[in-house]
Amino acid sequence: GLPDAHSRRLDPMQAISAGLTRVGLKLAARAPAIKRVASPSAVRADRAVLSRTMRSTVVPQAVATEQAAAMKTADAPRWALETHFGYDSVYSSSIDAELDAIEQKCKELKANFEGKMGESLLDAIKAYEEVDIALTKALSYVSLSCDTKLDDDKAQKRKASLFQRYTTISGNQLTFFSLELADMSQETLDAQMENSPELAKYRAYIDDVRRSQPYNLIKEVERALTVRAPFAGKGKVVEFYGNELSRLRFKDGDEEVNMEVLLAKMTSSKDAATRYECMKALNTGLKEFERVAALSLNMVAGSWHAENTERGFERLRSQRNLGNNVPDEVVDSLLDAVKTTGVDYCKRYYALKKGILKNTAGLEKMTWADRNAAINIGTSSESYTWEEAVDIVKAGYEKFSPTMAGLFQEMVDEKRIDVPAQNGKRGGAYCSSSYGHGPFQLLNFTGTQRDVATLAHESGHGAHFMLSYKQGILQFHPPLTLAETASIFGEMIVFRDLIEKAPTDEDRLAMLMGKIDDIINSVVRQCGFDAFEEKVHSGRASGTLTPDEMTEAWQQTMVDYYGAEGEVFDSYADTSHLWTYVSHFHNVPFYVYSYAFADLVVGSLYGVYQKQPEGFEDKLLELLGAGGVKGFREALEPFGLDPADPVFWKDSIDAHLGSLMEEAEQLAAQLGLSDASNGL
């Protein structure tokens, strides 16, 4: 799962078990949550970031559905993990042998460097790096392999036992490392840097670790928190929440289906009555789940409050912002811009969509179930083969960057993509960095246009990793603020290429509306999620919240971000308990704004590219290749962008979302499909 921890630095085991090796996960409930603000082990295996959600909401962990598995993608390519990692299975004895060797190295590292890092910091970091690389190999393989075996209890037990083993090793042997590095005096560090010039290449890593110093607890407490993490605390409650969520079934006529099937049916249906029945079934089923969700969320919010107090964080989001290396003021500015300018565009967009659905599908009353309804006009194919999808993505990338197109082709040719939707496979999509052996993509490809966009997105992450591996395992992973750059940019490039090739204005309008759906969900909806979290966490500081109080906070947030009932949406019926299945609230408190941050930054980058394409590729490849060595301000400076500027976010929303809105409104008016074009 995603960790309920700072994504600042997690040791490889925690990063992998937490899903932080995965970028682009859409169905996001993951394995047990990490229980601490930051890993004291502080190895930077992968500081990964979830990509923005491609669908209407964050969907729970689920295996691929039978319907999807029945698609003609069953013979699509699978990733060749055994070839790349050299293991024959997750039960390979060589994995255990490697972990034995790693444990011994961890003991030697502690014996050699605890209390002595001020004497030989370079040697200590190199030894730590060596452990990190070895761990990433074994644990990435197990994690990836088990994601295609969710229905194999034996494999899942094997994975859990390996995770538990390393957590114990980490707590006992590696707790000292990041704490001593963070506590090292500046005078001692300066002397080490002067005596060992090679340390300069680790500067970003060192600075990142040292940022946590004011908030670290004493070594003995940090060690105890790490060792106890798999056994006690809120993590087990969050794990129970995730497991129960994945087991929920909902009425669909005479059948009972899982949530992924129900949501897919609701999103894809062309019939408003069918969509509403799906929403009603979803909300009805979730009402029975409210006590489990409320228990877990109370535990998470209570723990967050305690962590803030004990570690000295002054504001609700400060510990998340520190982990993301973003100043509180920048995040506040983003959230303010979305709640004003973003909400205005949101209402304007759904008013446009309401008119189009009325004029094309006879929609009489717009409910929440219609929010992500497709605009079914035009002649474009609704289905693509895997080979067609590869050609489309490659052509789009080639148009912008031959380098990135070549990296994409490498991923395809080297069997780094697990393509088909099959039972027993984790739902959604992600890209795992798997330093030294990756990257790898997990897809659930069923041939939809959205699947093509997902391939473009995850391949952007893969190319980003491949370009940044040269920075080394401790510094290759980009900060949150830049982690979505290649993925969203690549997706936008492919989208624009498809728009240009669209045969009719109707096709172009349908594609534009789908893209705006995605952006609204990434920007406005995610910031609405953040506002709900703020209400819950603020209330929890005064005592436990009831399920009814959480429901009330959810319903108020909907009004704040989408307007009062009747303003745009005619009804919010059967939406009261949708808060119960947003797993981010439990796994990564106050993480969701990152989607808005990433989408708007990349939207601004794309605007720069449109205005001045000459030389842009070289600058972007340099940014991607820097990995985690550059912060967001330094990396974006060559493009003339500064997210720390208070007006940046409003300007970005206007340029990114506003420009697409204008295109869609003009096309709808030309085609006579909007209420405005009909004088209504």
Briefly say what this structure is.
The protein has 680 residues and is mainly alpha-helical. It is 60% helix and 3% strand.
What is the topology, as strand order, of the major beta sheet?
1-5-6-4
Share in β-strands: under 5%
Inertia-based shape? globular
Average pLDDT metric: 85
> Into which percent range does the helicity of residues fall?
55-70%
Please report the number of helical segments.
27
Radius of gyration: 24 Å
The biggest beta sheet is recorded as:
4 strands, mixed
Structural class call reads: mainly alpha
Distance between the termini: 48 Å
- Number-wise, the strands total 6
Instruction: List segments where confidence is low: pLDDT < 50 over at least 5 consecutive residues.
Output: 1-72
What do these coordinates show?
The chain is mostly helical and 680 residues long. It has 27 helices and 6 strands. The protein has helices at residues 12-17, 66-69, 81-85, 93-113, 121-146, 153-183, 186-195, 203-210, 219-228, 234-247, 259-268, 272-287, 290-311, 318-324, 328-361, 386-400, 402-413, 449-468, 480-483, 485-501, 505-540, 547-562, 584-587, 593-611, 616-625, 632-636, 648-670, and strands at 22-23, 250-252, 255-257, 417-420, 430-432, 440-445. α5 (121-146) runs antiparallel to α6 (153-183). The chain is globular and about 75 Å long. The two termini are 48 Å apart.
